[in-house]
Design brief:
15% strand; globular; 17 strands; alpha+beta; three-stranded antiparallel beta sheet
Amino acid sequence: MTLRLIRDRFDKRLNRTPIPSDLDEVISIDPKEVSPEQVGLDQRAIDAIWEDTLSLYRSGMHPMLSLCIRRGGQVLINRSVGYQRGDAESADAVIGDLNTPICLFSASKAISAMLIHLLAEQGKVHLMDPLSYYIPEFATNGKGYITIYQLLAHRAGVPGLGEDVDPAVLFDREEAVARICAADPIDHLGRTSAYHAITGGFLIDELIRRTTGTTVQQFLDRHIRKPMGMRYFRYGLTKRDLDRAAENRFTGLEPGKLVGATLKNVLGLDYMAVMELTNTDEFKQAILPAGNIYATAEEASRFFQMLLDFGRYGDTRIMQPLTVHRAIQEAGKASIDASLKIPMRYSPGFMLGGSPAGIYGKDSHYAYGHLGLSNVFAWADPQRDISVAILNSGKPVLGSHLASLPRLLFSIPKHCPSVRDMREESLGFLLS
């Protein structure tokens, strides 16, 4: 058996995407990247991060990868590699670029949560109010005391839509809300951390509808997307943009019974069924606040830079400093999440980093952001003054990326060292 045949069989078993022999043909680099010296780094740091990014791409788990890192508010890295559609062996392959929108999936939750914090800033809700004060039917089966704050912190007691859910429910907002409101909570006091993969988004949408008379899409457009000059950054895509989005692809090994059952518990749906849905026009045009904002990596990094700047984008005030401050504060110590079955630390809206290491790399206690299906990462790290977005179109769970992905996540904080001692940081300006 030849080495080529062995490799081909291995690649097929791992469900790897073919990698072009000349990566330069599928790489896009923003000519407006600043020199690393302008933000206190050197070229070796940039080269190391980018090489770790390419290593992740060479794993064959992601047909397209896009990375944007800001430091000190400046675009340090803004690059993409790979194919919007198809791969190196596809006759109809389309190379992606910096303007290719990619679905953020659950990283959308951080953005949707900030819309609720904006509602609170405007005085339309209070975070410590029971959710049932605004959505009375949510009080069913003892959920009357669950607060908006607990909803944002994944403690609303309704992490799933129920067993054997028809995927069509995802596109029927009224039915989904009715199911959630009628559900028996896993904890009617909101003490149990349990990742709300889909349900929280429907409740956020409903809360905005009932307090503003507008949709979550309209609210996002009015208060964030348009003021920040975003081309995409919306739930779903317009019809004219449907063919511009990066095509999602399942890669890696198929989930076994144990992993598959865990994923189904988290998502409420079979993982492979979810994957099939994500490339349909129905999904790409839907409004799913928990999981289908489309954006470029630069737009996602821009959003987190705005948070890093405590609500300011250039000369425009998007939200008040105290609004951001409240949103990123720890909601509880790290604990085993009842849905994910791993230790998690949440704020009311974000997945938080950790020490000595966390989901955003080494010594990331002050970092806040969110993960998305399955290797999407977007976060801000005030200690290092960076805002980061790693977007991708491959959706592996188990695969050949399990070494290169952690390496990239640790590479970024390693090569973007701390610029401030957070223990000595004063936030007095928030009150000025």
